[in-house]
Each structure stands twice: as C-alpha cells, then as structure tokens.
Amino acid sequence: MQRNVSLGVDVGSVSTKGVVLDSNGEIIAAEYLWTEGDPVTATKKTVLSLQKQLPASASIRSVGTTGSARKLIGAMLEADSVKNEITAHAKGTLSRHPDVRTILEIGGQDSKIILIDNGVVIDYAMNTLCAAGTGAFLSSQAKRLGIPVEELGDMALQAGHPARIAARCTVFAESDMVHKAQAGYAKEDLVAGLCDAIVANYLNNVGKGKRIESPVVFQGGVSKNRGVVRAFQAELGSEIHVDADSHLMGAVGAALLSRGAVRAKPFECAIVDLCFQTRAHTCPGCANHCEIISFYRDGVLLDSWGNRCEKGRAAEERKEDYLTASRNTGRAWKI
Question: Roughly what angle, to the nearest 10 degrees, separates helices 187-205 and 226-236?
C-alpha cells in the first residue's frame, strides 16, 4: 500500500538538515550534514540519503524548505512551501511541544528566540552582530583547545570552578580564553566557562528585553551540548526541554508546512541528478543597482530574485533572451 509522506529541508550556512514525515508527523528518514558553502550539493546529498532510507511504498507528496538558502533550494526542489526559519521552527516545535512558550535556538552562524502564546508566535529576535553565542564560535574554541566539539558538553559538567569568560563579543571572549588558559585554568573549567559565556551572550543580545516563560524548548546543534543546557537552566531557573530531534526541528516544520499542497504527481528524487547553476549580475535599470540572482536547471531559468522593482525582473528577462541568442551566435554576455 502506498504511503504519502512529506519532505522538509532546512539549509543553513553551516549545516543542512532533511527529514521525511509520515502521515502522523513522525520522522521516518533523517539526514544532517555540513553545507560547506555549497547548499545545492549539500541538498543533493541530503535528498539521496533520505531516499535510501525510505521504504518502496513511500511517495513524497509535498516538499517544504526553510533556512538561509530556502529560496534557492525551494526553486531547485520545486517546493510547495518556502518559509522563514521562525515560522518553520515554531511549527515543528508545536508539533512536539504544543504548550511551548519559549523556543531558544542556537545554530552554527546564527541564533534566535521565539515567544509563543496559545500556539501563536507573538515575538521573536535573531542575532545580527555578534557570533560569540553561536555554534561556530564553540567549534573554533574547541579546535583551539584540542578537544572534539562533541565532547565539550560532558567535559563542562566535570568542571570544579568554571572560569569567567567575557561574553560581550567574539574578540573579547577569545582573548579571555587565552588569558585564562595561560593563567593555569584546567580545560574543564575553561570549557564550562565557555558554555556559560555563550548563554550570557545569547541572553544579553538575542534575549534582551524578552520575557522568557516556561515551558522552554532548546533547539539547534548547540542544544546537544549538555554544558550549555545546564548553563541555561542555571541562568533561567527553569527546566530546559531538549528532545532527540531538536537539531531537525526546522526541517520538521518545513515538511509540516508543505502539507497543504496537492501535487499532481509525487516528488522525484532523481531531480537532484540534474545540473543546477546560479548566476549573479547587477541590474542597471535604476539607481538601486540591485544584485539579481538567477537560478538555472540544465540551462533553463527556474527563478530569479533580488530585484526591488519591476525593472530588475525585466532586466533578467532581457538577459535570458541575450543568453539564448549568445548560445546560437557564439557571442558572450559580459557582467
């Protein structure tokens, strides 16, 4: 018997997450890998991995994307739903924690806080300036200390006297880490201090002025760090919920949000075998000088974005006509 399922892909700057949900919203296939600056290739690997995990009876009837590359990957996968991270994370979390009031999320390059009341997002914030409260900073410090990033959380729990690390910004925090190490602090205390600093930075920047109420759910790759979880619990004085799929909630939300679509035919994973290209040019149509990003599949324009007026769209259409003519005449388009 055929099983209708939904595909959700969350493409971030550091990692790409993909899930396939059954009709009950349960994950039947999942993948998490590094984006490595190439969201198209990362998505191809993710979709192919998910395909191998699916039973032959599964038929993907809807596709949703989210994350910083959601529009690009949405065009690539012909997605039925393309939503921002706030909407996707809220949807995914509410499916698991219907009474959630606060969502804390720390990813590789960014972090966010989402406030929910009766199942509705009422406020949110994202980091815009400092990276000291993100997973990338945690990874860089782990590498400098010679410790696998996966072991940081357990090591932090062994600390006797956590070091006080400046949390205002990346530069100050790193400088303070060096100073404390040279002063003779044990690695366990340095790591615990680092976890505390990440939480302090998050609350002083992303969470500043926000009323954090329980139940609180912590998500993102950093939620797997038990030292950071403990630091949040100590700082907020409340239980922090972290489930096994906390790092996949954006993809789960994307899949759920796509379910309203009615596809004429199932999604074909073979689409990832096609050749995809992006091209960028500056629109000369007006003083805005918009940077237009165009996305092609096997030489055919799928979508373009970046224009702030209709002149940008017209310029892209003219460019496509020129490219077609160039292929026939051997002339080159210069950007």
Answer: 50
Question: What are φ and ψ of residue 131, in 5° steps?
Answer: -105, 5
Establish whether the linkage from the previous residue to 215 is cis, with ω within 30° of 0.
yes
Q: Which residues contact 142 (CB under 8 A, 6 or more apart)?
A: 148, 149, 152
Identify each DSSP E strand in 119-193 by its residue range: 120-126
Task: Judge whether 93 and 219 are in contact, CB under 8 Å.
Answer: yes
Instruction: Give the helix, strand, coil percentages of the chain, each rounded to 5.
Output: 40, 25, 35
Sign of the CA dihedral with 79 first, then 298, 42, and 29 last: positive
pTM: 0.82
Whole-number Å distance between alpha carbons of 245 and 289: 42
Q: What are 6's strand-pairing partners?
A: 21, 62
Q: Which two tokens stand for residue 154?
A: 């357990």
Q: What is the pLDDT of residues 47-57, one digit of tens each?
A: 999 999 999 88
Write the DSSP string, 95-112: HH-TT--EEEEE-SS-EE
Three-state SS at 46: helix
Residues 6+ apart with CB under 8 A from 312: 283, 285, 288, 290, 292, 306
Is the distance from CB of 26 to CB of 147 less than 8 angstroms?
no
pLDDT tens digit sequence for 130-172: 555 677 777 777 777 788 878 888 888 888 888 888 766 666 7
212 residue type, one letter: I
In the predicted structure, residue 239 carries a pLDDT above the cut 80: yes
